[in-house]
Amino acid sequence: MSTVTELRVEGITGVDEVARVQAALREHPEVRDVMVELVPDAPARVSVVTLEMLNVAKLRHAARDAGFTVVEASVTRDAEAAAFAAQAHARQTAHSRAAHVAD
To answer: Gene3D superfamilies, per this entry (predicted)?
Structure first.
């Protein structure tokens, strides 16, 4: 079972900051992947993938030590199942639309 912790992080504005926050978060052995999405005029979206639940305070601390501020955090447990469910819904919606157009 995987877990995805979504962080909204202030202070990430370019590739140097992306690399710095990724390196800081990856220092935790539980972290499998870190993805960063820059958002204009808003905190960056940082997704941290772990196999087990990781204390959000540890991630906040790592980001702070790297010079950033976490302003929001949310956790999705069993992220693979959640992603599969979302993809299944999207496929069903696309299939329904295609069938409706064909009629």
So the answer is: 3.30.70.100
